[in-house]
């Protein structure tokens, strides 16, 4: 078997591994997708309780049926300009994998669009830039007709450092003087 054929099969296998259903949403004019299996639920925007000394992209926490869930402003995380919240602004609650467990986290987005079934051959690898640009959090680029959607690896977008910073701050908040 030739090297070109082997490489083509590897690319084809990679595409098949990423095919599936994606929840799509927008941040301004940009369109993104998340693996549907990572999405727990979608809720309209509700007030978020801020947590002191957290990074600017961590809005705070919400109480969702008795569970305290951190909420990340995805616009701020991606260094995008903030905008006014609208009726379409919502929080997508996702399950992210951290170590041996999973954590429920909310991500604030401008608008949820639809669930798309994207075939493996319609997903290309993320673009490669120089070493100064990190694209590890991009699972791939979904081609839907003439449109493209950045498919996010939400575990990498909301990495361990965000959750560690949040956990450290909430631990400090819970301590009470004797």
Walk me through the structure.
It is a single chain. With 178 residues, this protein is α+β, with helices and mostly antiparallel strands. 22% of the residues lie in helices and 42% in strands. The chain has 4 helices and 11 strands, in the order αβββββαββββββαα. It has helices at 3-18, 74-77, 154-157, 160-174; strands at residues 20-27, 30-35, 39-44, 58-64, 67-73, 90-98, 101-109, 111-118, 123-124, 138-144, 147-152. The strands form 2 sheets. Strands 8-1-2-11-10-9 form a 6-stranded mixed sheet. A hairpin with a 2-residue loop joins strand 6 and strand 7. The longest helix is centred in the N-terminal third of the chain and has 16 residues, at 3-18. It starts with a helix and ends with a helix.
List the helices and strands and how they pair.
Blueprint: H1 3-18, E1 20-27, E2 30-35, E3 39-44, E4 58-64, E5 67-73, H2 74-77, E6 90-98, E7 101-109, E8 111-118, E9 123-124, E10 138-144, E11 147-152, H3 154-157, H4 160-174
Parallel strand pairs: 2-11, 5-7
Antiparallel strand pairs: 1-2, 1-8, 3-6, 4-5, 6-7, 9-10, 10-11
Quick overview of this protein structure:
The chain is α+β, with helices and mostly antiparallel strands and 178 residues long. It has four helices and eleven strands; from the N terminus they run αβββββαββββββαα. It is 22% helix and 42% strand.
